[in-house]
């Protein structure tokens, strides 16, 4: 597989967590990376470690995403890769989810990814080359879990718009795909608590959580020039979590 030398990449939501893992892998493969995050201080630290640039962005704001794309384009002179990874996963049971909580999760996760794509695609289309990789999840498109109704809806919505975007951009040289992680060792997963992690571990055939780099390598493949004939597809990275037909299959 060719290295990514000289390519310009934006990873949204990459100050920490597995966005950081995605940026680390892309940088190690030669890409110039923009660490785009709402937390500028943490983004600056990550960017310094990886030799990238930090960009402050709030993915709930369309104008902020446009500024992000313009800044990266000005720095790199080209935009090859967008990894739309920023997301939140607060838990709330159905009776507790008010309109504000629903909108917050769906605005940040689904609308944020869509407007990130919309901001970056013009520069890609102009050069006839681009790789957009969305971070969805197994939760929503495939599995369900109490407390994740709003989150699951947002992650399934991402796949809905991805497929139409892929078809719309099919002749432009821009592909749009998604990774669907299971459980990844991140500060966000730590914050979900020990009981959540215990339950999750019990359902993973590989008996291990993913490392951020495991997601990074999946993104790297979909973001490679060699993946040119793959668009509108999903890649599950979950240690086999969606596979067991019965709980007994895990023992
Ligand atoms: N950790 C998991 O097990 C897991 C599994 C499946 C999917 N996901 C998804 O992966 C993505 C990353 O998850 P994570 O565990 O690394 O999360 P995390 O909380 O550890 O990191 C998320 C990053 O996004 C940034 N961010 C938050 N709101 C933002 C905003 N409005 N604008 C820009 N940046 C913002 C945060 O500052 C942080 O750096 C999310 O989309 C999440 O839904 C996570």
CATH-derived topology: Rossmann fold
What class, by secondary structure content?
alpha/beta
How much helicity do the residues have?
40-55%
Determine the N-to-C terminus distance. Answer: 38 Å
Q: Name the poorly predicted regions.
A: none
The CATH superfamily title: NAD(P)-binding Rossmann-like Domain
Beta-strand level of the residues, as a percent range?
5-15%
Describe the structure.
The protein starts with 7 loop residues before the first strand and ends in a 14-residue tail after the last strand. 45% of the residues lie in helices and 15% in strands. It is built from 8 helices and 7 strands. Strand 1 (8-12), helix 1 (17-28) and strand 2 form a beta-alpha-beta unit. It has one domain: Rossmann fold (3-Layer(aba) Sandwich), CATH 3.40.50.720. With 251 residues, it is an alpha/beta fold. The model has no long low-confidence stretch (mean pLDDT 96). It has a 7-stranded parallel sheet with strand order 3-2-1-4-5-6-7, sandwiched between helices. The structure holds nicotinamide-adenine-dinucleotide. Nicotinamide-adenine-dinucleotide binds at residues 13, 15-19, 37-39, 57-60, 85-89, 108-109, 135, 137, 181, 183-184, 186-189. Nicotinamide-adenine-dinucleotide binds next to helix 1, helix 4 and helix 6.
